[in-house]
Amino acid sequence: MNSDIREITEKVEKESKFLDILSMEISKVIVGQKYMVDRLLISLFTGGHVLLEGVPGLAKTETVKTLAKAVDVKYQRLQFTPDLLPADLIGTMIYNQNENKFETKKGPIFANIVLADEINRSPAKVQSALLEAMQEKHVTIGENTFYLEEPFLVLATQNPIEQEGTYPLPEAQIDRFMLKIKITYPTPGEELEIMRRITGSEKPVINPVITSDEIKRVREVVKEIYIDEKIEKYIIDIVNATRNPEKYGLKELEPLIGFAASPRASIYLVLASKAHAFMKKRGFVTPEDIRTIGMDVLRHRIGVTYEAEAEEITSEDIIKKIFDTIEIP
C-alpha cells in the first residue's frame, strides 16, 4: 500500500508542476483572493460547478475570465436578467428558408467555462435551463441532444445583499453546485496594490499555461489519489450527522436543521479533498483536506428552520458544530 501511495505521489508531483506557473499568471491580474482562486482550481480539476457569493467589485468576474485565459479554453459570460429566455442560453431551432428546414442554432452555453453572472437575476425557467447542462453535461434543443465539450464548468455569481428583483435559486439547483464560496474584501495592502494596478498604464498579458487536454489528464490523476477507509467513514459521519444529529450527540441541532445534506455532499467531499491534496502535491487525502474544503461543500446543502433563523443560527454555525464534534480519524 505504501508503495502505491508513493507511486501516486510521484505522479501527482509530476503532473502538478504547472500549478506554480498558473498561479503566477493569475496573480498578474488578480491580487490576493487565494481562497477564491484555489476553489476555482479545485472545480477545474474535478469538473464540479461553483457558486460565488460576494458584494460587487470583488473581482469575481475578472478572476473567472483570467482563469479561462490561463487555461486556454473557450469562455462565455452570460449576464442573467429578468427578461432572459432559456433559448438565450442553450440555443433554439431556426427556420432556414433557402433549405426549407429547421436548423439548430447553439447558444452561448457551448463553451468550456461559462460564467453565469448574477444567476439569481433571472426567473426559474431560465435557471432550470442550466440543470441538464450542469448535471448531464449535454443540452437538448428540439429533438436533438448535443454533448458539451469537456472541460465544462458553470461558475455562477450572486450578490448576497441585494434581494430586490431577484429569484432565489431552488434547492435542487443549488445542490448541483459542488462548492459555494463566499468572497470577502481585500486587505488594505492588497487594495493598495489593486488601486495602483488598475490606475496604472501597464496592462498585463495572460499566457495560456495548460490546455483542455492536459486538464482532462489532471482529472484522471486526481481520481487516483488515495483516500483511506477511515477518512471515507469520517466523510459519511459528517454528512450523516446533518441527517441524524442525535446519533452523534448533537440532539440540540435537530430542531435547527430543515433539510440535510444529500449524497452529492459525500461525493463532492471526496472529489474536492482529492483535488485539494493534488494542489498540495500529495498523493493521499488527510482529514485536514476534508476540514479545509468541508464548509464550501456543505454550506448550501443544509437548510435551517424558522427556529434557527429566529435565533440567528446559520448553516455555517451548524457545520462548525458538526466538525467540532465528529472525531477526527
Fold and architecture overview:
The chain has 329 residues and is of the alpha/beta class. It folds into two domains: 20-210, Rossmann fold; 225-325, Magnesium chelatase subunit I, C-Terminal domain (Helicase, Ruva Protein, domain 3). The chain has helices spanning 2-15, 18-27, 34-46, 60-71, 86-90, 124-127, 129-136, 171-174, 188-199, 212-224, 229-243, 263-279, 287-298, 306-310, 315-325; strands spanning 49-53, 75-79, 91-96, 101-106, 113-117, 138-141, 144-147, 153-158, 177-182, 257-259, 303-304. It has a five-stranded parallel beta sheet with strand order 2-5-8-1-9. The protein has a two-stranded antiparallel ribbon with strand order 3-4. The protein has a two-stranded antiparallel sheet with strand order 6-7. β3 (91-96) and β4 (101-106) form a beta hairpin. α3 (34-46) crosses α12 (263-279) and α13 (287-298) runs antiparallel to α15. It is globular.
The succession of helices and strands, N to C, reads: HHHEHEHEEEHHEEEHEHHHEHHEHH
- Taken as a percent bin, the fraction of beta residues is 15-25%
The total strand number stands at 11
Assign the CATH superfamily of the largest domain.
Answer: P-loop containing nucleotide triphosphate hydrolases
Cα-atom Rg, whole angstroms? 21 Å
**Cα distance, first to last residue?**
18 Å
Number of domains: 2
CATH class label of the largest domain: Alpha Beta
Count of alpha and pi helical runs:
15
Low-confidence stretches: none
Biggest β-sheet, characterized? 5 strands, parallel
The average pLDDT score comes to 86
Helix content: 40-55%
Structural class: alpha/beta
General shape: globular
Looking at the structure, the CATH topology of the largest domain is Rossmann fold
Spatial arrangement of strands, main beta sheet: 2-5-8-1-9
Task: Say what oligomer this is.
Answer: single chain
At CATH level 2, the architecture of the largest domain is 3-Layer(aba) Sandwich
